[in-house]
């Protein structure tokens, strides 16, 4: 990490509204710190519970899916560059656990911070579904910025911005 801020920021992207808000915040942070921005999508292949085998028997289906995810993530990367981020890249990683995939990637690639969106669920919904953002906060070895879609809209509407 630079003495004046972050030099490499990882932004977790799941293509949701929360991820759009996280991207907006990550763009602002990357521009403010003149940092590299890495957009990361973790793909967790579905596994059937009874057979413990991947649902996709053909490797071509997985290759096509990974290619489609990479193409969509590339559109998000282009958005970051169009917004003034000089150094932006994108990665699709296949992992068994989304939150471990994010924290492992950040650690292995020298990221100084992680930006992640949240759906803002709480209570019973979080208990039943788990929270990727919560797990990332608890297990990351770097600072984590958690962004709610409503908070990003409010910040963008404020005259002071960042």
Task: Outline the structure in words.
- This protein has 162 residues and is α/β, with parallel strands linked by helices.
- It has one domain: 3-Layer(aba) Sandwich (Rossmann fold).
- It is built from six helices and five strands.
- The chain has helices at 17-33, 59-82, 98-108, 123-129, 132-139, 149-157; strands spanning 8-12, 36-43, 88-94, 113-117, 144-147.
- Strands 3-2-1-4-5 form a five-stranded parallel sheet, with helices on both faces.
- The two termini are 21 Å apart.
- The model has no long low-confidence stretch (mean pLDDT 83).
**Which strand order do you get reading across the main beta sheet?**
3-2-1-4-5
Largest sheet: 5 strands, parallel
Helical residues, percent: 40-55%
Under CATH, the topology can be stated as Rossmann fold
What's the order of the H and E elements? EHEHEHEHHEH
Number of helices: 6
Distance between the termini: 21 Å
Q: Given the helix and strand composition, which structural class is it? A: alpha/beta
The tally of structural domains comes to 1
Supply the CATH class. Answer: Alpha Beta
On the 0 to 100 scale, the average pLDDT is 83
Strands, total number: 5
How does the overall form come out from the CA principal axes?
Answer: globular
From the alpha carbons, calculate the radius of gyration and give it in angstroms: 16 Å
User: Which residues sit in consecutive blocks of at least 5 with pLDDT less than 50?
Assistant: none
Q: Report the β-strand fraction as a percent range.
A: 15-25%
Task: Identify the CATH homologous superfamily.
Answer: HUPs
Proper CATH architecture = 3-Layer(aba) Sandwich
């Amino acid at each position: 990490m630079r003495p004046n801020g972050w030099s490499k920021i990882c932004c977790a992207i799941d293509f949701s509204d929360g991820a759009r808000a996280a991207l907006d915040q990550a763009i602002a942070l990357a521009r403010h710190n003149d940092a590299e921005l890495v957009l990361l999508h973790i793909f967790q292949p579905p596994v059937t519970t009874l057979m413990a085998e991947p649902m996709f028997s053909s490797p071509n289906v997985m290759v096509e899916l990974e290619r489609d995810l990479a193409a969509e993530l590339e559109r998000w990367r282009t958005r970051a560059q169009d917004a003034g981020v000089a150094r932006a890249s994108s990665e699709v990683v296949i992992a068994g656990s989304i939150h471990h995939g994010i924290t492992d990637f950040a650690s292995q690639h020298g990221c100084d911070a992680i930006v992640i969106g949240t759906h803002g669920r709480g209570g019973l919904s979080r208990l039943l579904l788990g929270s990727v953002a919560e797990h990332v906060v608890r297990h990351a070895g770097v600072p984590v910025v958690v962004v709610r879609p409503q908070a990003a809209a409010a910040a963008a509407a404020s005259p002071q911005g960042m």
